[in-house]
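Issue: ligand-bound run for 2-amino-3-ketobutyric acid - logging full I/O for the record.

Environment: standard queue, default settings, no custom constraints.

Inputs:
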Amino acid sequence: MQIAIVTGASSGIGKEFVRQLSYCYPWLDEIWVIARREENLKQLQKRIDAKLRILPLDLRKDSSFFTIQKLLKTEKPHVKVLVNAAGFGKIGKVSECTTNTIQGMITLNCTALTKMTTLCLPYCGKRSHVIQIASAAAFVPQPGLAVYAATKSYVLSLSRALRREVKQEGITVTTVCPGPVDTEFFQKAGGSLSFAKKVCMAKADQVVHKAILDAAGGKELSVYGIPMNAVYVLCRIIPHRVLLAVMNLIL
Ligand SMILES: NC(=O)C1=CN([C@@H]2O[C@H](COP(=O)(O)OP(=O)(O)OC[C@H]3O[C@@H](n4cnc5c(N)ncnc54)[C@H](OP(=O)(O)O)[C@@H]3O)[C@@H](O)[C@H]2O)C=CC1
Ligand SMILES: CC(=O)[C@H](N)C(=O)O
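Outputs:
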């Protein structure tokens, strides 16, 4: 059985991946979709042809990983595509975040992504693609979204190293680093959206379209749009203390 696995499939970027994978990879036997909102996953099945295996799981819970591990052991699928999209962020100073929120971001954005990746890798092989959803927030620290940005730096660092480790096996790892994307993310994140972010807001379908192409091309990074590619270059050439001072003014 050849499958794709998508976490965070109940909305936004993850949901868009499921939709686009279903027609870019029509030969997949199943797409395993993971998120807590089962109803959203059921609704998604009504709108696409691919067979979905609905896994309503909370990835902050250890028990969810036992379920996934058991399923992988039973089905022994070839995981052709793994998309780790589940994640969230909270806007506000670190001192204003509760320890629960901070722990939640680290657990979901870092620990769960790492666990999913390590659980699935033994089932990946030649021409399998691991697609990790990081963020442009991974490029430079982001006051006001500090813990979230730090979790995304972790994802980027982990995924770039992993890419080298699994290259020999023919597995590619592509890290997707979008700027602001129009999804439920910012409703859940609270706080207000800066003018700069509103201007740079991208559509999920375009970010995902590029990510799927970049993964198929074996690229290391997928950065959608001119503004975020400019941010990427600036973050590499301008000292971060200067960037942080500018960000303080515009974000
Ligand atoms: N929107 C943006 O501007 C950007 C987003 N990103 C990243 O993209 C990814 C997707 O976000 P986006 O689509 O925008 O936001 P959404 O809020 O629309 O999607 C988040 C997804 O994560 C799932 N999720 C949240 N908590 C859990 C949990 N405990 N267990 C399992 N699944 C969970 C949600 O499903 P459910 O609630 O049903 O569990 C949902 O499917 C995230 O990693 C985010 O950091 C990166 C850059 C920019
Ligand atoms: C939410 C995001 O990840 C986005 N790149 C941002 O920094 O706003």
